[in-house]
Amino acid sequence: IVGLWCTLGLSLFIFEDLHAFTLVFGSSLIGVCIDYSLHYFAHHRVDHPWDSITTMRNIFPAVGLGALTTILSYIAIGFTPLVGLRQISFFSSCGIVVSFFSVVFFFFFLLQSTHPCSSHTPVVYRWLKYFLIFWVSHKKLIFASLLIIMAFSIKGIYDLQVSDSPLVLKTFPADLSDEDRAVREIMGIAEVQQYLFIVGNTSEEVLQHLER
User: Please, how many CA atoms are within 13 Å of residue 68, restricted to the half-sphere of its CB?
Assistant: First the structure.
């Protein structure tokens, strides 16, 4: 919440107005910052005795690396000439920075006492212990199973086709599209939601094709 409100003020100061998509996508992207606090809370649940400063020092490299890589990826979006993507880039990057430092500088002050259940091992930890025991005891069986699964997936990877055409975003099934076209012909209604994709090797060529 702190990251969201702070970056909202900064974004309005820089851009004066924000698109609704910036708020929607930016808020969703800032949501990944909940992982930073979850790391700290996980240690707080199981560490006994509890030392808030030592715990923060221990998780800082992992949390800091995660925040850095995320910020860099969003900054890369800002190099696009599209103003909307620049807004999302700035909004998300600032939100992550503020959220990260909120966790680093405030959590160990606000969470000084030991968790009341820290002396009891969580149920999930016991399940994980059984899983690790099974993994160590049956390594060959697990690796053989993984190899079989990978062998079946080779055909799917071989048949994989990547398309960057915007036309693939039209997700209507072929039979539904035929029905829609038939109904429109009967009723005499033209298809108003048609798009033209103008392509060219240069910006000038695209403009010439568009004019023609």
Answer: 6
